[in-house]
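To the wet lab folks,

You asked to see what we're planning to order before we commit. Fair enough. Below is the target structure as tokens, and below that is the sequence we designed to fit it. If anything looks off to you, flag it before the synthesis order goes out.
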């Protein structure tokens, strides 16, 4: 199993973003877990939210078709009862196996003005082919009580649009999460010029595979590394 973090730019044109994303998904190995940066297809698009929602519906069909032999994780703008959400989708075996909407919205921009927070109870561990997977969306990474909520996950996904002024925060928090929860962390941040990049695969021991100049960052998943950390440096995680 290969863990993949995509580090891509988001352009103003939705179709261009989808084309770029699908190209990198196709280039990724079979049986890989692939994480894309937060809202990679549309960015926040506060001025055209309904267009973004329509594009989400179009993109879902395409992403389902690409998930026959790969697990794809992406956040997209959705709408329910006139409320907009930043919703993470996990695609596997040509279907959506899990969704969760961002439960803690960012405080330093207009996200709270335009989006509705999701249910924090949806932040949970799910099982895909025997691998326990959980996700924290961008700003949620800062809340350590959520780390406790997903303890026991083998892989934690952190899609983000994390600004470069707080680059060190993203790197420090994702590494600390991997070490504290003794799991793999896939961190995927936007490659736009004002973003931190810092996309990485981090091992349960805290080893980091990172390159701000690459579009695809990969590492091999090894369940034994998780078991070894949890056995020899036991902190009560099973």
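Sequence we intend to order:
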């Amino acid at each position: 199993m290969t863990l993949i973090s995509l580090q891509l730019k988001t352009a103003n044109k939705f179709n261009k973003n989808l084309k770029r994303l699908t190209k990198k998904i196709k280039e990724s190995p079979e049986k890989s877990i692939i994480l894309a940066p937060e809202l990679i297809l549309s960015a926040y698009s506060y001025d055209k939210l309904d267009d973004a929602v329509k594009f989400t519906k179009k993109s879902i069909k395409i992403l389902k078709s690409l998930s026959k032999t790969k697990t794809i994780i992406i956040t997209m703008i959705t709408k329910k009862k006139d409320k907009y959400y930043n919703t993470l989708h996990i695609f596997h075996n040509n279907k959506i196996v899990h969704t969760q909407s961002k439960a803690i919205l960012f405080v330093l921009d207009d996200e709270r003005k335009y989006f509705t927070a999701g249910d924090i109870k949806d932040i949970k561990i799910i099982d895909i082919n025997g691998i326990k997977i959980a996700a924290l969306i961008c700003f949620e990474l800062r809340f350590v009580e959520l780390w406790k909520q997903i303890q026991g996950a083998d892989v934690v996904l952190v899609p983000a649009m994390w600004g470069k002024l707080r680059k060190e925060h993203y790197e420090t928090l994702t590494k600390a999460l991997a070490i504290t929860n003794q799991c793999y962390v896939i961190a995927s941040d936007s490659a736009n010029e004002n973003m931190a990049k810092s996309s990485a695969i981090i091992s349960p021991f805290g080893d980091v595979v990172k390159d701000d100049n690459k579009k695809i960052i990969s590492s091999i998943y090894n369940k034994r590394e998780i078991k070894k950390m949890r056995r020899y440096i036991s902190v009560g995680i099973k």
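Structural context that might help your review: Residues 49-66 form the longest helix (18 residues). The mean pLDDT is 97.

Thanks,
Computational group
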